[in-house]
């Protein structure tokens, strides 16, 4: 069975060419993205044995998602549905001073009715790690329940539970998010939270390390990783705090950077067990992701090592 | 005010390149299509003064539809909505022996909640013609009611009502379609119906001309045009029946052929009033449409005249 | 009738892909651009009711221009011609240290024979504002006369006349430009002039605010806006001078930046009447334009407001 | 373990756009193709549990091949090599009277040194079927030996051995081919041979059915399927001969048609065991392949069933 | 010096993608075409030593033409001009029943002022053959004079003069064409004329062979080749008439077919001297051209030989 | 005969779109590049009369190279071969912190067997300059011998020999490179060497000017140009040292920058004879190259002059 199992929604992403607008572009490129599958792909490419669980419609759109993830070495265990939709989102890349825009069209996606009974939960129980994010419980009440059950059962089965808060203002309000997430966090062993989300959702305004400590104390996590964008990340554990700066990156496509961080972190943590090494690996994976189109971190261990080693020259 | 007003749903169409599959294509082309706006575009390009009424979401996707139709000279009078979705569909072109495939993703489109009270019905009352199709009442119960009201009021206002049966098996069953449409048809002055739909929905299996006569007698239409694909069309009126063969065409994209027929028919009928001329004009417009990508008949009066005149040579 | 009417030449623009050369590129992208239609498009998208007058050849090239502007909500009132050409220009984007290049192919464009008698001048008389630029009189002697007549008649009809000097060294010499423009400027109520053009054409080398004051005194303008590129703009009126810095922008395509500034300025000025607000709106529109391909500022009021408000973050 | 295991070389295919030449095209599309992986892909998509064994260079080119096949559900068991090349071929599509052209650049591909000792032969022994083709022994002497060993051992292990003659004049002469293949054929249970190859390589000029009978008698095959292009195929077994006509097809890309036939045949034969059904399934899969770009038959069981059932209409 | 020298205008051709319209296509492909350079390119690729004389503007557009022809082995001897334009034309491919359309934008091209004094006429005098077509004298009065002078001087210098009537109704009327061409034809040794042009311009309505005989007698040509499209061509010489049927071809792009015929004819005639061989070679080159995008016949001697030999199969 | 003759391998370069990976990109752009042909192209476009000698396979791939260079005005004198391959390389553009990657697939290229006896060495003897680089002798033992012979004979014939060390770690080790190159350098009149290569291959760690002096003294060169990337270059001659800073450049594609420098240097040096002028010209050409896609410096003398003159503004 896999070392790392993830569960969540994966969407198709439609993007106009650079400099063009959704209103007028005649062609859209198609990508596949979702927080939990992005994490699985990054970890898989970096050597992890990973699986992704989800529920998809049995159309070319749903099958495309399965095949795309399979191509990256992720084991997919899908509940195929004749009901519901394939969620999509539109990404219109910006450029200073024009912000990037995201338009979701994910209502009634097939996954919104997914229950523990139909999912391959035995894979979770048998894995080292189970990962999902705050996007999943935001998608439907059914999924909020399912997420709670999966996290609780995983922890009970001895599987390390990993969770990224990933607050999305287009999916729910801070108040509803806080209420739902507060019920889930006690079942989480390893928490990733952006400093911005800690403030927006939980009202935590302290410095990142202190925020990490607060979460750890409140919910009993083993590890809390607080990310703060260009400033890097800090991991808080029983043994203390570890800081990791971000690597500079020329950004081609920022989507999926946080997922690449988590995927890189987990791949390394599962392989070596060192927080310092995992943070560095995650930060390098995230920086590489920014140089690539699409939501997925199509990187290699050698590339991550080169970033960490500071070697980025052209060898002709 | 416009001579011809149409009402209905318009979708975005996403199409992979020729020979590629939805499952694997990395780019999708974007088109705009809907039976009622296709009719308005064809009629507008052929000289008609047309308007299209609908309800759209106020996003780049919805605005794209308004702008695309506006570029073709169609006056758009839109109810902008913050609720509902922009409907889309996927078209995977086939080739013998592989059929083309269509995947709808139009559930909960903004238009499904459109009521007569919010629509610009004064445009309908002031027009010569009002057109909608059997797709519209199939989309929601609200729209079935709205369609009935619009047709009834238009007829009462002295506007000629035009209706194309346009049966879509992915939207409703023949039984439900028959029940709903039977209630609408008495309000229809000019009916277009494919011989195939006459059989599937209404169980009419006679020859096209006889089918036309049957509809005319049953529902009191002034004109019934029965189309039978490659075999052409026949119009039945009080004055008798007129046959029109189809023009040969090298098909690049078949979608919208029927709408081009109706649009060409109406443009000519409104301008000249002759059934023979309108049928010929419609058939030529339909043939031209088949040679062009997209749902809309981007043709000119000169091109239609050239087809009718049998002149299709290259002049260099 | 429209609040803002513009008159001028609009060309097709052919551009090779980034990093490729006109000499070797196998595909050219097609855009539509002209100072006066760019202003109309920007103002229309930002809420203004605008019209564009011109003379075009009745070919797909000419019709394309009409349709493209119509899609952006601009009312087009065109003199269709069987004589003359559709002007085009080639834009080869540069990158330090290679300058961008522009190659005009606009000789004998249909508009070069346009006279007041054939143009829809009633639209000008009925509008709040009439806009044209120094490019128009540079195109032919006929157009120099036409421009003078239109400005004079507009002013006489109580329509505010707006003019952008827009000196183009490939069209005429500074000496000829000065002579012609000097005859036009007394009919101009609101003048836009780049500091660089003020120097090249009129020999004005003072600081921007002083240059604005000099023009105001010499020609009797109500408002003079002097733009000086990255340094921003200054507006001089009876009430004094108002400075507006430029917003930082990541430039995808610089063409049309000045027109976006004018279009944004006018949209806001017509709506609110404040010079400060109009300058800020113009500067934000200009900055947004730089992030988009093509000559037209395909922006929205919400985006302009976000730039002014300093909000350019990605919300996912 | 898999029902069907295949072994052979898979190349990258570079193709210019339709109507363009290799000499001048500025872009080449990239596909993945090889007789044995094509068979595996077709069988996998049609429900078979398949695996592909090969030897690849550990570069993005080699990894692309593994990932592309993995996306189609094929289990890949690869010997990764630091020596040798990734074979590629160039395909220039023709059109009457210009023939299509193929340029191989496959010398010294990594697979040319593959030996049984390094390959995952346990997968072959545990499978129902093992498939390779006459291309494999043509690539190197080592591969000729390896092919002989794999076929012999598979047969000894009770795995049904399947072989397609697939003669390629650019790889070897008829004389050398005949000598090598004659040594392999006694180890083959199910043989596919084109009538053209039977004549060129083995001098068999009888009618297809007779040719099949001759091979069966000479080499002791259980099944011989003789294909003769547009005329269809005939299978000869102990129980007699079964004819199968080809389905008409609009050809977008003919490459891989034969492999699709074999893949469809085997998928159905493994599932149902009927020669008639397998031939029909193979012929339908081959016809569908012709309508799709690329070497792989990206088809579904429903599409194959529709071809067999004669249903190829557009349902909108 | 070259065996074959040609003189004429070469344009850029802009073409929308298949199925798209000039009015709406966002990208245009760029090709280089002109009757006389097309002939030079075909002859050069088929082994002839060719040169092309012309007058071009010294911009990237003009230089592109020189470089494109140079890439095909044609020696270019250009008068570079700062005056005049680069002619372009737009080609909108049709499909039954929609005819292809051509829009010229070639007025005031630099070549329209070309005089014998500035052209490299020594190359003509030293060559075996000089070729130009009826398009050249149609472009301007200056060019009509220049064409007459070049043909006369060439013939006087012992160079075989070759001329293709190439009537273009968009350039001049039949009457003017007849008057001008009648003055040129006595200086022509080898004439190519389409049966259609013989009728339209010269009122010759006899069968092709008789038309050829009439021209021969009237103007004293050594060889007259009358082409009649799908029906092939007939050459009339002192020795009698030779018929050549056209080869069937799947047409991707018909433009330049006639020029390919002439280029193939001349390459073979210069090399071998046989009328029969030259006709066959020309017909095969023309058929191959139809399968390729663009105006130029990018073919090889081997491909021409394969068409003549009836070998058009795919060898993989 | 030509002023400058170069000899070396030219490859096809395949590049995925920006932001995409070789592993997944569906299209690759095709370029033509090789150190020695890049130098010839740059010099040719800047006014030099240049020729390129090489050995190519007689396929569309080989012919493409000849035609592409011919289009840039380079005389090509090719040994056509039926043996060997056309070398290709893959370029995957990076972005901080991801380095660009190059994958060679050039083993057994046709040129690897090229001998002086088959090459057009008379062109070298008759030229002012002969150029090759350290890549050539690295490709095969035969080529190492050929390079030595060509350099020695050229020098003996009075042709100035020019050599760029161009060390490639993927082709040979520093030790082997040093041994081979040490034997060649005494035959070199003008040496270009990157400071990095001087250290890696020759262990020279002094400042660039001192390194230049060391080479000059050791091998007797007339001119040594030591380049050190962003820091510029220094030329050491009998008359002393000349420094040249690099021009700032926005890099679209860095490949071929060094070759553009040499090509620009030689074009100017052959025309004017000044070291200072040649260095400046080379640096400007190199900077321009960085703004353009592909290996070749598709620049003009006017653009080089503009960079030197500091004029890089857009003139519209």
Summarize the structure.
With 316 residues, chain A is α/β, with parallel strands linked by helices. Helix content of chain A is 38%, strand content 22%. Chain A has one domain (4-308): UDP-N-acetylmuramoyl-L-alanine:D-glutamate ligase (3-Layer(aba) Sandwich), CATH 3.40.1190.
> How would you describe the oligomerization state of the chains in this entry?
homohexamer
Tell me the overall shape of chain A: globular
Total tally of structural domains of chain A: 1
Proportion in β-strands of chain A: 15-25%
Classify the fold: give the CATH topology of chain A. Answer: UDP-N-acetylmuramoyl-L-alanine:D-glutamate ligase
Strand order of the largest sheet of chain A: 5-4-1-8-9-10-11-12-13
Q: Helical region count of chain A?
A: 11
Structural class of chain A comes to alpha/beta
User: What Rg of chain A, in angstroms, do the CA atoms define?
Assistant: 18 Å
CATH superfamily of chain A: Ribokinase
> How many beta-strand elements of chain A?
13
The N- to C-terminal Cα distance of chain A equals 41 Å
Largest interface: D-F, 25 and 26 residues
Main beta-sheet annotation of chain A: 9 strands, mixed
């Amino acid at each position: 069975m896999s070392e790392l199992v993830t569960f969540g929604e994966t969407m198709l992403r439609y993007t106009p060419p650079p400099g063009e607008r959704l209103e007028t572009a005649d062609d859209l490129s198609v990508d596949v993205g979702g927080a939990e599958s992005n994490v699985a792909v990054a970890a898989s490419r970096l050597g992890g044995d990973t699986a992704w669980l989800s529920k998809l419609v049995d159309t070319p759109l749903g099958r495309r998602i399965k095949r795309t993830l399979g191509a990256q070495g992720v084991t997919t265990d899908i509940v195929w549905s004749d009901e519901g939709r394939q969620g999509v989102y539109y990404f219109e890349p910006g450029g200073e001073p024009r912000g990037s825009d995201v338009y979701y069209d994910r209502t009634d996606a097939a996954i919104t009715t997914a229950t523990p009974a139909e999912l391959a939960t035995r894979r979770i129980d048998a894995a080292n790690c189970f990962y999902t994010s705050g996007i999943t419980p935001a998608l439907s009440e059914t999924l909020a329940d399912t997420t709670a059950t999966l996290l609780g059962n995983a922890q009970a089965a001895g599987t390390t539970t990993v969770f990224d808060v990933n607050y999305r203002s287009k999916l729910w309000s801070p108040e509803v998010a806080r209420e739902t997430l507060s019920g889930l966090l006690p079942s989480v062993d390893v928490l990733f939270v952006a400093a911005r989300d800690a403030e927006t959702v939980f009202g935590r305004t302290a410095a990142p390390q202190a925020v990490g400590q607060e979460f750890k104390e409140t919910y009993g996590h083993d590890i809390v990783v607080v990310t703060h964008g260009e400033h890097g990340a800090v991991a808080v554990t029983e043994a203390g705090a570890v800081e990791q700066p971000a690597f500079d990156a020329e950004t081609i496509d920022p989507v999926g950077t946080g997922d690449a961080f988590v995927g890189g972190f987990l791949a390394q943590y599962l392989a070596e067990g060192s927080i310092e090494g995992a943070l560095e690996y995650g930060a390098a994976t995230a920086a590489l992701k920014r140089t690539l189109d699409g939501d997925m971190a199509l990187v290699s261990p050698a590339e991550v090592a080169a970033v960490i080693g500071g070697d980025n020259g052209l060898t002709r």
